[in-house]
């Protein structure tokens, strides 16, 4: 299991369009992904549940990826949440 | 901040079982509710249509439900919403969630408010099968308002999961 806590740097936060990209990316991988903000943990493939979290730029979230391709999944998701970060 | 339901009822931006020939007509008619209520300028509607053409139907967020919206700088005048249901669903080009018969238009005057306040309230509604079924069942504006008020009461009572 990979776990990363990071600040959302994507300038639009995780509202509809970025959240949609996030979900599509999650679905490309076999690993199970969860996203946590505060005390709330939601499945990474549920757009509505991610939207409910109301994530804005500057929020801190924790991503967890668990499965055979967890490294690749984590890398791809971190790039979405922190665009421009080193690969 | 006033909630989704309160603002929707106050602005009178509700249209029930309208007939639209295609997604673009649905967006134009629903968007016009926002414009007529003074919540947005005409270019808000145009921005939604352009976004759909260039980026795709990313605002189709759940089975049968679209949330057309545009960035604050694209003609949003005041934070507000419009709700439209269709008598016959239309295709937006989203494999997973087509066809669409509920459109929730959203506009917020700044991005932070949009992400932190507006989006979560709409997501709560869309994630509730019972309340979405009630919106679809509403045949008049009065029935729609009553269905929305039941949702708001459940939300405030913490009865949604």
Strand residue percentage of chain A? 25-35%
Record the strand order, biggest sheet of chain A.
Answer: 1-4-2-3
CATH topology of chain A: Histidine-containing Protein, Chain: A
Topology pattern of chain A, helix = H, strand = E: EHEEHEH
Order of helices and strands of chain B: HEHHEEEEHHH
Description:
The complex is a heterodimer of chains A (87) and B (161). Chain A has 87 residues and is of the alpha+beta class. Chain A has one domain (2-81): Histidine-containing Protein, Chain: A, CATH 3.30.1340.10. Chain A contains 3 helices and 4 strands. Chain A has helices at 16-27, 47-53, 70-81, and strands spanning 2-7, 32-37, 40-43, 60-66. By secondary structure, chain B is an alpha/beta fold. Chain B has a single domain, classed as 3-Layer(aba) Sandwich (Mannitol-specific EII, Chain A), CATH 3.40.930. Chain B is 48% helix and 18% strand. In chain B, a hairpin with a 2-residue loop joins strand 2 (60-62) and strand 3. The model of chain B has no long low-confidence stretch (mean pLDDT 93). Chain A binds chain B through residues 12-17, 20-21, 47-49, 51-57, and chain B through 55, 58-59, 61-62, 67, 69, 111-112, 114-117, 119-120, 122-124, 126-127.
């Amino acid at each position: 299991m990979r776990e990363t806590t990071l600040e959302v740097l994507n300038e639009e936060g995780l509202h509809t369009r970025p959240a949609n990209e996030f979900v599509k990316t999650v679905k490309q991988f076999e690993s199970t992904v969860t996203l946590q903000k505060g005390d709330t943990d939601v499945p990474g493939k549920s757009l509505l549940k991610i939207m409910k979290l109301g994530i804005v730029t500057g929020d801190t979230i924790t991503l967890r990826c668990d499965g055979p391709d967890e490294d690749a999944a984590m890398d791809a998701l971190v790039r979405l949440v922190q665009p421009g970060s080193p690969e | 901040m006033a909630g989704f339901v309160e603002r929707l009822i106050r602005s009178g931006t509700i249209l029930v079982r309208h007939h639209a020939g295609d997604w673009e007509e649905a967006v134009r008619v629903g968007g016009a509710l926002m414009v007529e209520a003074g919540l947005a300028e005409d270019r808000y509607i145009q921005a939604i249509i352009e976004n759909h053409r260039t980026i795709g139907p990313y605002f189709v967020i759940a089975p049968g439900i679209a949330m057309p919206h545009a960035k604050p700088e694209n003609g949003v005048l005041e934070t507000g919403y419009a709700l439209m249901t269709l008598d016959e669903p239309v295709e937006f080009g989203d494999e997973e969630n087509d066809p669409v018969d509920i459109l929730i238009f959203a506009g917020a005057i700044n991005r932070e408010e949009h992400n932190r306040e507006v989006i979560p309230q709409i997501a709560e509604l869309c994630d509730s099968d019972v309340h979405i079924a009630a919106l679809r069942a509403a045949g008049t504006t009065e029935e729609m308002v009553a269905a929305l008020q039941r949702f708001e009461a459940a939300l405030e009572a913490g009865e949604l999961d």
